[in-house]
Amino acid sequence: MEIKTHDHIDRALCGEPVTVEEGSSEVRLACAPCMAADASGLVHGGFIFGLADYAAMLAVNHPNVVLGAAETRFLKPSRVGDVLVARATDETPQERKHLVRVEVACGEDVVFSGAFTCFVPREHVLAGR
Question: Per-residue pLDDT tens for 114-127?
């Protein structure tokens, strides 16, 4: 399926799409040294959130999609060198409002889960600004 949103995103920081289908997506992120929060190699949660958010946007896959709210949980730490896979499913594919569930896994371990409320405004949020 053609990707219709977030075409300028840095995939090295937010993940590489593996699959994008109607109402779902899968995105892979290799955790790089630049993502470390400290000397132990702990990956900053913002990168994991960014991966999950990008997967949610791709599940909706509309040029105007934006994030309105998120309820998330970090379940296990991630380290530099980990390969994370986010799987997103649009549970309420309505015209303007979407509830997208996302899980991020490292191998068999779920490290993050969230519910993302996404909106599709009639025009881009920066139109006319």
Answer: 999 999 999 999 88
